[in-house]
């Protein structure tokens, strides 16, 4: 079943059940505490927290999402993309657990001939929050699941909140058993190859406060109006229904892998390391396309840095696959063609999108050329002297003078069996920041404010903001 069809069936199902179909919001988060929309619920936060009255009692959407926190997983697990689409249904004080479970079960188990996804009920497992007896008994009643396939989990896995005072509640996740060839029978449902989490149902039922961590907070009492927030990973469902092995092999992504494989002459499926690189390319090219489409441009900070990192990682993965010529003019149009049925604006806006992407590749090529020479020399010296780690000073110089992001240095070092003296690198970085601050203070007296011109500046060194992004990213869900 094509991804477009999975999408259509989802929206139809919830439309027929009284939900208003709401178009995807842009990837840029409306909530300043996170960079990107990381879940389908993000655009609905004001309604879910009760800050604003929801315009409809029920809504459904297919929301574009970016999770930079999952970047290291890409290509290595079967199920994590930096860009993905979360299909959701939402109830704002309307139906609650029974409705959410009924709608989800109906859609996933109804036959394909009858408009559903047609998953075999015998292969469906669920988790519930450990003392959510209500959800457990609904699963028994509605889905007739045996006890063994209703697994109980604690606060860490099955309780949702925003890490701030406000709504919270248990959740229930739906898994598909892919079969014994992917792992041992029975046992706990674990987030590995065999059991694939496809859908998370969040039951927002209480107000919490004194939030110290995921597992430490105080429940104030029941919410006056209880909400439902669900998220189904469209790519995960697509890979199961398309009979492929992972989310990078679906119709919206695989054409890029195929083309990258042809360009490099590396056959997909022949070598694990090459395969991971090809999947990284498939994922990152699509994410970059979607980000630029939504107005992000490469830069050294925040969202722009995420985009820069995705573009540069794609180019570098292609180089590691042996392709030294310009990669993006080959791959970006292929990704556009795979995505334009769902997002026609990518086609009409492609000139602008591609200009931005290709310019970034050009900048990076220059950076790489010089930086790689410096790196190779330093790595050889480090190894010769028997040291396990590249000096912090080298990483700093690569960063400061040659625009090498630290994660690139880390990656290249690890390919050589080396680590990097990161504490020293960070110390030098903060020293430099202090110098820059002092400079700025000195300049403030007597100079005109140049901040309006900042965007016109040449791309300079790239501060590593990855960790901040990872942290802020895990804030919601
Ligand atoms: P996982 O445990 O596999 O990392 P999650 O529990 O972090 O998933 P949720 O936050 O519950 O995911 O998001 C709801 C749904 O969105 C998941 O059930 C999954 O189907 C999908 N999803 C989450 N992260 C990704 C991703 N990086 N790529 C593709 N789909 C995803
Ligand atoms: Mg996750
Ligand atoms: Mg999970
Ligand atoms: Mg989940």
UniProtKB/TrEMBL annotation:
E.C. code: 6.1.1.7
Entry's cofactor comment: Binds 1 zinc ion per subunit.
GO biological process per UniProt: alanyl-tRNA aminoacylation
GO cellular component labels: cytosol
Catalytic activity, reaction form: tRNA(Ala) + L-alanine + ATP = L-alanyl-tRNA(Ala) + AMP + diphosphate
Localization, UniProt: Cytoplasm
Cofactor or coenzyme needed: Zn(2+)
Keyword check for Nucleotide-binding: yes
Residue ranges occupied by any Alanyl-transfer RNA synthetases family profile domain in the UniProt entry: 1-477
Signal peptide location: none
Main subcellular localisation: cytoplasm
Keywords, alphabetical: Aminoacyl-tRNA synthetase, ATP-binding, Cytoplasm, Ligase, Metal-binding, Nucleotide-binding, Protein biosynthesis, RNA-binding, tRNA-binding, Zinc
GO MF, one example: ATP binding
Purpose of the protein: Catalyzes the attachment of alanine to tRNA(Ala) in a two-step reaction: alanine is first activated by ATP to form Ala-AMP and then transferred to the acceptor end of tRNA(Ala). Also edits incorrectly charged Ser-tRNA(Ala) and Gly-tRNA(Ala) via its editing domain.
Domain notes: Consists of three domains; the N-terminal catalytic domain, the editing domain and the C-terminal C-Ala domain. The editing domain removes incorrectly charged amino acids, while the C-Ala domain, along with tRNA(Ala), serves as a bridge to cooperatively bring together the editing and aminoacylation centers thus stimulating deacylation of misacylated tRNAs.
Family: Belongs to the class-II aminoacyl-tRNA synthetase family.
Protein name per Swiss-Prot or TrEMBL: Alanine--tRNA ligase
Underlying gene: alaS
Residues of the full protein shown: 1 to 477 of 893
């Amino acid at each position: 079943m094509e991804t477009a069809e999975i999408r259509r069936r989802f929206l139809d199902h919830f439309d027929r059940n009284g939900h208003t179909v709401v178009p995807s919001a842009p990837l840029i988060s409306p909530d300043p505490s996170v960079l990107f929309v990381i879940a389908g619920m993000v655009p609905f936060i004001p309604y879910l927290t009760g800050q604003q009255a929801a315009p409809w009692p029920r809504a459904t959407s297919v929301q574009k999402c970016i999770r930079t926190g999952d970047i290291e997983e890409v290509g290595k697990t079967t199920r994590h993309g930096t860009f993905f689409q979360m299909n959701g249904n939402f109830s704002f004080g309307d139906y609650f657990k029974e409705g959410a479970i009924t709608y989800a079960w109906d859609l996933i188990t109804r036959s394909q001939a009858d408009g559903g996804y047609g998953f075999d009920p015998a292969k469906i497992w669920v988790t519930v929050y450990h003392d959510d007896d209500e959800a457990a008994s609904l699963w028994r009643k509605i889905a007739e699941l045996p006890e063994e396939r209703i697994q109980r989990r604690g606060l860490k896995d099955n309780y949702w909140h925003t890490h701030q005072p406000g709504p919270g509640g248990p959740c229930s996740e739906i898994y598909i058993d892919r079969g014994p060839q992917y792992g041992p029978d029975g046992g706990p449902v674990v987030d590995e190859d065999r059991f694939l989490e496809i859908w998370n149902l969040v039951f927002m039922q209480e107000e919490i406060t004194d939030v110290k961590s995921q597992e430490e907070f105080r429940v104030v009492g029941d919410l006056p109006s209880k909400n439902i927030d669900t998220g189904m990973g469209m790519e995960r469902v697509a890979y199961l229904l398309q009979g492929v092995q992972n989310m990078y092999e679906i119709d919206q992504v695989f054409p890029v892998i195929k083309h990258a494989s042809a360009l490099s002459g590396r056959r997909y499926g022949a070598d694990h390391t090459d395969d991971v690189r090809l999947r990284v390319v498939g994922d990152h090219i699509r994410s970059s396309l979607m980000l630029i489409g939504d107005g992000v441009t490469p830069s050294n900070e925040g969202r722009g840095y995420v985009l820069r990192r995705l573009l540069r990682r794609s180019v570098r993965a292609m180089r590691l696959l042996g392709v030294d010529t310009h990669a993006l003019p080959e791959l970006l149009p292929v990704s556009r063609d795979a995505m334009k049925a769902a997002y026609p604006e990518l086609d009409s806006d492609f000139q602008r999108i591609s200009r931005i992407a290709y310019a970034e590749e050009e900048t990076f090529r220059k950076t790489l050329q010089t930086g790689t020479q410096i790196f190779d020399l330093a790595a050889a010296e480090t190894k010769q002297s028997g040291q396990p780690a590249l000096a912090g000073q080298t990483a700093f110089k690569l960063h400061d003078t040659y625009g090498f992001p630290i994660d690139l240095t880390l990656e290249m070092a690890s390919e050589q069996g080396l680590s990097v003296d990161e504490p020293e690198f960070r110390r030098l970085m903060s020293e430099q920041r202090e110098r820059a601050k002092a400079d700025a203070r000195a300049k403030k007296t007597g100079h005109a404010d140049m901040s309006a011109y900042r965007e016109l500046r040449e791309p300079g060194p790239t501060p590593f903001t990855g960790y901040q992004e990872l942290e802020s990213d895990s804030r919601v869900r």
